[in-house]
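User: Design a sequence. Structure:
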């Protein structure tokens, strides 16, 4: 309970603020000033809200520190000032957003000459961004009154923090109507045209990159906003301006009508690639058109394609004559010239144009033989996988796309669908089939001479598999097969030998290598489904399959057809063999666990065997066994008999009679009536030695508790002494050797006394077992008639 001792530590700031002449820098030197401000310490907040303190905080983040200050503490106070102003304390936000003098001082930072200090620019952008989010109406109204705001933003677009501030104005304004007003205001200020003018060779690379990134983000944010706001009927004004044909033409003229500049060219291509992106759904997995949106919204604007088509020859020339690049030395050789970022992005642009599948664009690419130039670069630059993947994408789209609709005829009727001109160009003019086979054989020759496998072989394998697959199952299959048949006989035979030989072997080897990795990844891939778990000889059936990478999961039948009737019948039969069923004896059947008197009777007379020292271990005479039925009970008066299988020759039957019980209170326990049939019991683990005791050996007890044992011998005929005619406890002749013996054993465990007695009558061949429990408070006393165990067994001395 810490509140008893008042362990709360008072911040040193409270003590410091009590001074009348305390300064802002002294407060900012305290280590916990930010924590106290975010915790809204009243004294600290009131101090910071002073007019002079607020002005000093804004000054710290808008003016360059003195050059005389040590470098490691040069930006200490600007950093702390920025954190205090952006601590999201409502009183500070209100004071800063409503005081126009402070806003003018903050706005004055944009009037500095470029380039801006990047660290101070980040402080300025962070403070103004949080004000836009918390006080949007006040800040927007203030900025709209500044006529030079957009000019200053474009002027400093080379600073990344200013670009972020421009994008935050498009994303952080929550009221929909206010956001739309901001978009219209920026569009009226021609922010798109001004950003486009920044992407030209006369500007530096930072302006190229940031202006291009700003335009790309405006495109994506505007399109995403169209999907999220379904009820918005008005189009985004900034996006509409960007998609205009004259805007795209201005972009292209900036890079082609002036000196070639790689940074400007790449930046413009990045903007075009963003415009060619199909408009993504608002969330992943949504493939259908959202409500209120038409399917044409997912296609590329036709005006963009019309602006790009006349410039295709200029992009084609860039592939042949890129901007000058220095010779590049690599570990495997010299690249003169290297591929370069310009040509790589031009190939990406061609792949995006092919995806649009427009007849005019396709026809222009065929006339220029752009695909042939791209294939030449593919086989020349054998280690540039960035280029290889783009060429693979181009060939895959050409083979899999349906033919592009033809242009409308002059009479107004739409043109009919014809065969794909790109596929014909790819097979005839570009000679794709011959070049694949030639490159494969050339690679094998180099490898056989100890050379290294070429870097494009993996992509070449996938291109060949795509050709085979589309010729069999693709939408252009008949056309591809027809073009195959038109090949020269030698080329056609080489191709057929290639797909049945090297290509099939490569697919088989790749599938075997990837099978276990697919299993480890636990993915239901086509390789895993097709090949995992097969033996080596079972792959012979896969020699003709060259389209392994294509999915066949839909052909798998997961249903299990099993017949359980045979197993169920076998299980029930085994249960009947192993489990002995209990017979229902009726409603008067008694519990088999009730305590009863047990009578053990031998069914055959025992006689001593010669040479035996222990009469209890002797066996019955064969003559006596022949005179008596072993299944006949010895006591006909007893109905409750249990067959006891002890595993030795004399079979005994048990008779359950009432057993008198004594409890601690002296009440006798009720017993069940005799004569009720009970279930069978198995005494296979019962040893006969526990019933008979040799007169020669004393009784032994291994019990750890205190006990007293007494044995009373009833000898009415005076046969206590061992008779020469009766060698044993029960002689062979019952008529001449008849006696009754009783064995009593008492065990004391705490306050309970348990007495167990066994009485055996040799004449009637019965044994009576009795057990009783008594509560003994005083120590138990020995019975005067009891004798020691040794005297009871061996007789008196």
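Assistant: Done.
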């Amino acid at each position: 309970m810490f509140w008893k001792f008042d362990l709360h530590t008072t911040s040193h700031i409270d003590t410091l603020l009590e001074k009348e002449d305390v300064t802002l820098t002294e407060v900012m030197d305290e280590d916990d000033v930010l924590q106290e401000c975010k915790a809204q310490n009243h004294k600290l907040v009131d101090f910071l809200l002073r007019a002079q303190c607020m002005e000093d905080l804004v000054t710290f983040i808008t003016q360059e520190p003195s050059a005389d200050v040590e470098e490691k503490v040069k930006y200490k106070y600007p950093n702390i000032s920025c954190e205090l102003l952006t601590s999201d304390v409502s009183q500070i936000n209100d004071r800063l957003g409503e005081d126009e003098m402070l806003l003018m001082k903050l706005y004055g930072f944009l009037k500095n000459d470029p380039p801006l200090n990047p660290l101070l620019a980040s402080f300025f952008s962070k403070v103004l961004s949080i004000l836009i989010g918390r006080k949007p109406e006040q800040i927007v109204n203030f900025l709209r009154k500044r006529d030079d705001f957009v000019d200053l933003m474009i002027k400093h677009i080379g600073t990344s923090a200013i670009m972020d501030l421009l994008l935050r104005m498009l994303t952080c304004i929550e009221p929909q109507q206010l956001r739309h007003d901001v978009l219209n205001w920026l569009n009226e200020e021609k922010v798109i045209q001004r950003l486009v003018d920044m992407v030209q060779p006369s500007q530096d690379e930072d302006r190229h990159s940031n202006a291009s990134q700003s335009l790309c983000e405006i495109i994506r944010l505007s399109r995403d906003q169209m999907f999220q706001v379904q009820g918005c009927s008005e189009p985004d004004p900034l996006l509409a301006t960007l998609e205009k044909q004259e805007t795209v033409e201005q972009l292209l003229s900036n890079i082609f009508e002036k000196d070639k500049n790689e940074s400007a060219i790449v930046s413009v291509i990045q903007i075009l690639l963003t415009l060619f992106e199909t408009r993504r759904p608002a969330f992943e997995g949504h493939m259908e058109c959202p409500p209120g949106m038409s399917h044409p919204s997912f296609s590329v604007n036709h005006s963009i394609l019309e602006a790009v088509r006349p410039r295709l020859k200029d992009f084609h020339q860039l592939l042949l004559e890129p901007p000058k690049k220095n010779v590049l030395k690599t570990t495997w050789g010299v690249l003169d010239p290297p591929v370069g970022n310009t040509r790589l992005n031009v190939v990406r642009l061609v792949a995006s144009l092919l995806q649009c599948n427009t007849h005019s664009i396709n026809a222009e690419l065929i006339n220029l033989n752009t695909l042939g130039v791209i294939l030449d670069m593919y086989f020349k630059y054998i280690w540039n996988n960035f280029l290889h993947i783009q060429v693979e994408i181009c060939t895959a789209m050409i083979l899999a796309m349906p033919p592009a609709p033809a242009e409308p005829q002059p009479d107004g009727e739409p043109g009919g669908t014809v065969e794909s001109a790109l596929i014909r160009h790819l097979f005839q003019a570009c000679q794709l089939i011959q070049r694949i086979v030639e490159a494969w054989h050339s690679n094998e020759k180099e490898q056989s001479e100890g050379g290294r496998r070429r870097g494009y072989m993996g992509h070449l394998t996938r291109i060949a598999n795509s050709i085979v697959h589309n010729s069999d199952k693709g939408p252009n299959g008949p056309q591809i097969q027809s073009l195959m048949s038109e090949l020269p006989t030698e080329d056609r035979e080489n191709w057929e030998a290639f797909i049945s030989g090297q290509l099939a072997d490569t697919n088989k080897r790749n599938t075997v290598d990837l099978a276990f990795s697919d299993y480890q990844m636990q993915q239901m891939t086509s390789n895993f489904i097709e090949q995992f778990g097969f033996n080596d000889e079972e792959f012979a059936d896969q020699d003709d399959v060259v389209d392994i990478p294509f999915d066949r999961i839909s052909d798998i039948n997961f249903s299990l057809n099993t017949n359980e009737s045979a197993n169920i019948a076998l299980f029930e039969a085994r249960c009947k063999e192993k489990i002995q069923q209990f017979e229902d004896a009726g409603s008067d059947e008694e519990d088999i666990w009730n305590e009863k008197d047990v009578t053990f009777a031998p069914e055959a007379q025992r006689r001593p065997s010669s040479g035996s020292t222990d009469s209890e271990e002797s066996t019955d005479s064969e003559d006596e066994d022949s005179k008596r039925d072993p299944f006949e009970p010895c006591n006909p008066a007893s109905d409750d008999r249990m067959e006891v299988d002890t595993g030795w020759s004399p079979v005994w039957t048990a008779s359950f009679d009432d057993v008198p019980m004594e409890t601690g209170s002296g009440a006798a326990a009720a017993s069940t009536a005799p004569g009720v049939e009970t279930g069978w019991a198995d005494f296979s683990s019962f040893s006969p030695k526990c019933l008979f005791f040799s007169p020669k050996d004393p009784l032994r007890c291994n019990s750890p508790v205190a006990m007293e044992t007494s044995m009373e011998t009833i000898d009415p005929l005076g046969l206590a002494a061992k008779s020469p005619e009766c060698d044993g406890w029960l002689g062979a002749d019952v008529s001449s050797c008849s006696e009754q013996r009783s064995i009593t054993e008492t065990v004391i465990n705490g306050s309970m006394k348990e007495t167990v007695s066994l009485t055996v009558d040799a004449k009637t061949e019965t044994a009576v077992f009795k057990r009783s429990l008594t509560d003994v408070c005083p120590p138990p006393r020995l019975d005067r008639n009891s004798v020691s165990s040794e005297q009871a067994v061996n007789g008196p001395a």
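DSSP finds 34 helices and nine strands in the chain. Residues 9-189 form one domain.
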